[in-house]
Amino acid sequence: MIDKAPWKKQRILVVDDSSFIRKALAHQLEEIGIEVVQAGSGEEAFKHASTEDFDLIITDVDMPAMDGLELCAKLKKTPRTQHIPVIMLSNLDDDSDIEKGFLSGASLYISKAEAKEFIIESIGKVLSKSTTHKEQIILVVEDSRTIRSVVNKGLNEVGFRVIAAENGAKAMDVLSYCTPDLILSDIDMPIMNGEEFCRAVHASPVFSAIPFVVMSANNDRPIMRRMMHFGADAYIVKPFNIDQLVILVEKILSDRLLLISKEKESLEKERALILASITSLCCALEARDAYTRGHSEAVAEIAAQIAKHMDIKHEDIEVIKLGGRLHDIGKIGILDSILLKPGKLSAEEFEMIRRHPVIGAEILQPVPSLAKIIPLVLHHHERIDGKGYPNRIGGIKIPLWARITAVGDTFHALTSDRPYRKGMELGKALQIIKEASGTQLCPDCVNVFLENALWENL
User: Fold this and answer.
1) Nearest CA among 94, 32, 22 for reference residue 60
2) What is the pLDDT, as a whole number, of residue 441?
3) 312 Cβ neighbours under 8 A, 6+ residues apart
4) Domains (ranges, CATH) in the chain?
5) Is the whole model's pTM more than 0.85, yes or no?
6) I need a surface site. Which of 79, 156, 166, 302 has the fewest CB within 10 A?
7) For the segment 355-383, what is each residue's pLDDT rounded down to a tens digit?
């Protein structure tokens, strides 16, 4: 059974002069949740596309009056419709027919004989590429208005968002408010030329990773090598075919996305391995102290529930939950004689206990993927009145995630057995939480905890 979810918001225009073929294709697409609009001619299709929004157009080639090739060419010449990807379906499938299809601007050309088997997969690939393009910004830096216009049109036709600048200085202004996914730049420009601009971009830690492509009429090998030395990723010589440029841009961005994906996968693996090690440390910590077994998991659950009721986004809630599990990881560095002492702690021993947030932060510090958790671990014992530890910060200076975790930590500590006392009854613990609001604990977090009776979820 095909999963309909990925297709729910997609809207496709199907164009064919045969009502039988049109309806059969529409039925196949509607079965997986795609919204389909049908048109029986090129003229009707263009009217629809001129006034309605579509994610994709699928058209027959051989139609009377305006055929599929003419429709595609007209769509690509019209600013409102030039970004819409077009798939051509046809019985005309020799090499010359396919070439005509691509020359008119089609994203894909499929034989009708193969359509039933491959159409869904093909649509997925084209839509995925189109969606990626819509999210990507290309900065075009060129002093020639004509070349800017041609490049802008070519990139827009395949769905890229384009920002143009007439020289390097204007491009630097653009970078002050926008970070593009790729830069296309001429060399010979007034005020700041392409070489100076390339060097400025790669001197910045913020922009140095942006792919930089040089467009230039100068085809001297020494100049090409110098631009590559300054950080350019590719060099294309004018006059160039705009399709050649578009393919180069797509290839560079595709390779970059693949690299980012591999790096992300590598980081996820590293994170999973480190978390497994840290989880083992947590288990070792709780195995040392039967009284605290399950404490971290309970704190994580309460913190996640508070965050959810405060409308914090899902991905951040997951990080908060992980932080809750790791908030006491620093206690692994505290001696058993102090951590498990049944009686009152001396001032010196208490100072050792107060070091556990700092120790925890130091344990997590070497792991880049856990950087967001560190402020939570470091500051979950700070107080709103500024009398907490380790940094004696107060109010909103305490990170929100740490304030959220502090409520869960305090509640579960009050209601759990400890070496030096039995756990409190629920009513008494809730009263202490109320009284601590505004002094020890964040009032907003306490209100969410109490109003939603979040202890009942444990």
Assistant:
1) 22
2) 96
3) 320
4) 5-132 (3.40.50.2300), 136-257 (3.40.50.2300), 289-457 (1.10.3210.10)
5) no
6) 79
7) 999 999 998 888 777 889 999 999 999 99
